TrEMBL record:
UniProt KW keywords: Membrane, Transmembrane, Transmembrane helix
Source organism: Actinophytocola xanthii
Entry protein name: EamA domain-containing protein
Family: Belongs to the EamA transporter family.
GO annotations of cellular component type: membrane
Coarse class of the protein's main subcellular location: membrane
Membrane topology summary: Multi-pass membrane protein
Domain EamA positions: 6-141, 151-285
Entry's localization field: Membrane
Amino acid sequence: MRTSTKGTLLIATLALVWGSNFLWIKISLEAFSPIQLTAARMILGALVLLAVIAARRDKLPRDLPTWGHLFVAALVANAAPYLLFALGETRVDSGIAGALNATTPLWTLALAFAVRQSNRLGALQLAGLLLGFLGSLLIFTPWNAGGVDTLGALYCLLAALSYGISYLYMSRYLTPQNLTPTVLSTSQLIAASILTAACLPLDTASAPTWSLTPWLSLAVLGIIGTGLAYVINYALIRTEGPVGASVVTYLVPIASVALGFLILDENVPLLSLLGVAVILIGIYASRRTSAPASS
């Protein structure tokens, strides 16, 4: 399948936007605590999408059962992973966080099999999962005392796991609701804003300090990386379809590692780069169709 010029531009733009989110998180943490950062980016993203659906004259859901599912989805798709990545980046580089985020499709596949949403794992899918595990180990380097901070990397892996849970939950409980993607994303961000804002009184950190660069980074993260990114993603899916749009999965970790190296002067160990490559190969293998295994 050939990618159109418009599709190529959208893929490159979305990969840059999502890949740079880890950079903006790292910079924003210079002035904000993880929970402050998470709540602020959620609110900014929700405001952007509210403006979009207002312009389109779309309606938010009004029934309580749907909002119940939206709050659960907001917890596992937005509030928890965004906070976990912010916590992780207090201990690991932005490029490492972006690389570990790439394990999301593998978590989704493993969870789908575990909860019987997928009936079987083909040989290639199993190989993909094993490669993803190996790639994560290469990034972690638990045998190296001077390697990546284990707790920080674990936060990032838990965030990717949370994304995987969210995809399965949403496909089961929200996809049948016949909500447009923009309305669904807006509603989720509203719910996530409420959840994270409610946690702010529990935050023991001091009030955000004033420094131009972290505040600008937060604005970019919330407005573009959390709000407009959804709009770009849906435009890409309309242009290239879900299969074509999935190419972004392979580019985001590359963008995050490259931006961390170029802008933040992060030192990327060779084993971590190898780990990213192995994870991407694992994702590719897991998305291939295996021949049925003989019984």
